[in-house]
Design brief:
Strand order of the largest sheet: 4-3-2-1-5
Largest sheet: 5 strands, antiparallel
Structural class: alpha+beta
Radius of gyration: 14 Å
Order of helices and strands: EEEEHE
Number of helices: 1
Number of strands: 5
């Protein structure tokens, strides 16, 4: 049995401008013989929305391009990198 990591690459972004506060998470994950790009976002006061930008698995280089484009689009909207908080 071969172990596959839960994600190959991931990013967590945060947006806070005035009353608007939201989080956006994206990841490249192995699936079948390829990789998918998944996302989840949450706006304060609403439900979590999850989905996939790649309905079918892609080669890693293609999935990475989709992931990079997705993160760049969110950064252009004003999202910034989340840093983990340590206790």
């Amino acid at each position: 049995m071969q172990f596959e990591p839960a994600t190959v690459q991931s990013a967590s972004l945060y947006f806070n401008e005035g009353p608007d506060e939201s989080e956006y998470h994206a990841a490249i994950a192995p699936k079948a013989e390829g990789f998918v790009v998944t996302y989840a976002y949450y706006r304060h006061g609403s439900n979590l929305t999850v989905g996939s930008k790649t309905p079918d698995p892609l080669p890693l280089d293609a999935a990475t391009k989709v992931f990079d484009k997705l993160i760049a689009a969110q950064r252009a909207k004003g999202y910034r990198t989340c840093f983990p908080q340590h206790a």
